[in-house]
Amino acid sequence: MRFSFLHAADLHIDSPLRGLDAYEGAPVARLRGATRQALVALVDLAIDRAVDLVLLAGDVYDGDWADFRTGLFFRDQMLRLRRAGVRVFAVKGNHDAESQITRQLPEVEGVHVFSSLKSETMDLPELGAAIHGRSFPNRAVPEDLVPLYPAPLPGRFNIGLLHTSLTGREGHDPYAPTTPDTLVAKGYDYFALGHVHAREVVREASPRIVFPGNLQGRHARETGPKGCELVVVEDGMLVSAEFVALDVVRWHRVDIDASGMHGIDALARRFRERGAALAADARDRLHAVRVVVEGESALHRLEATQPGTIAAAIHAAAQDVDDAELWIESVRLALRSPFDRAAAAERGDATGEVVRLVDAIAADEAGMRDWFVAQLAELGPLPSLVADADPRALDAAAIRALLGDAEATVLAQLTGDAAEGDAR
């Protein structure tokens, strides 16, 4: 007896993706529609591969629907699966918990959402499979749900469908915490997990325990391929399991070491090489790229003299990458000017005074933070885009980087003034 299934999680359909309007030239419609298109790709894969089951391990929705269109879109995709003979089993997670979604639509035959009141088992004797699961009743579930999951059914390939943080994962709230050992002791053959957005194979076999990651990256911190697991079972044994990428927008962080670079042409060449590599890996997607330029380089002084030069060079280089859709989400700088600080600090002119002042501010971390907050206060109201940001939340390294940028700008101005004076 042979069957196959797709395991996906964290679809977050119609996730709002706030702040996109602040990016000039951003492909806003494509970015906001990406979660829907990734679900379409999941359904297409299920139909093309003629799988028997689709398992959804929570957070199908990002929260309560703004209107019925979100639910109707999902329902339409479930109808496509039903008409193809594919059954769907789902649990609700923290974002789409029983208490979170207030609007209701008629159920779809062949789609089973596990109860939030108790754990359930769905026996599928025609496949030799049993699926066990329980939905979140509320957004916050602090207790381990696994001890209350049913015992495995004899003669079945037993699958546990669970939304959980396990023992904790960075960036994720500790919901339904449990341990791999607890899952192993349950006696199931596969645990289809959700909640963690980075793909992770927690255990290879006996049982196989997997976070597939979210179906579509939603911002610059959710980088790399996103998709689902395709699993094949034969005679009660797992015979193959593979990750299938389904994202329609792929997020990347590209770090460029500009140490020793003296001009923007070298920087542009370096980015074109990296951009071409991204495109070659997956040409049929939009690639959203955050670029970080770092190192000790004359580019730091150039940027200080002509702010925006480096970002413009990166955007121009992206235009030069053939057969690829690259969108530069942002260009961030962590550059330093190549000069002898110790010698500069000994100078008796304005340059020495600036360097000594910066060193004095940076010497005491607490004092540096207080100075930074005081300077912000003198600027008056912040732009609306960052008005809610707490400057005290910045770490010392970030403040020192900003201080270094300010120093470079002042020194560049001093150098320019001196050059103009010499010319006169």
TrEMBL record:
Check the record and name the CDD domains matching this protein.
MPP_Mre11_N
InterPro entries named in the record: Calcineurin-like_PHP (IPR004843), DNA_Repair-Maintenance_Comp (IPR050535), Metallo-depent_PP-like (IPR029052), Mre11_N (IPR041796), Pesterase_YhaO (IPR014576)
- The secretion signal range is none
Which SUPFAM superfamilies does this one have? Metallo-dependent phosphatases (SSF56300)
- Residues in domain Calcineurin-like phosphoesterase? 4-198
Q: Which domain of life is it from?
A: Bacteria
Coiled coil, from the record: none
Which GO terms label this protein's molecular function in UniProt?
exonuclease activity
Q: Which UniProt keywords apply?
A: Exonuclease, Hydrolase, Nuclease
Asked if the keyword Nuclease belongs to this entry, the reply reads yes
The UniProt record lists the keyword Hydrolase = yes
Return the Pfam families for the record: Metallophos (PF00149)
Protein's recorded name:
DNA repair exonuclease
Q: Which organism is it from?
A: Zeimonas arvi
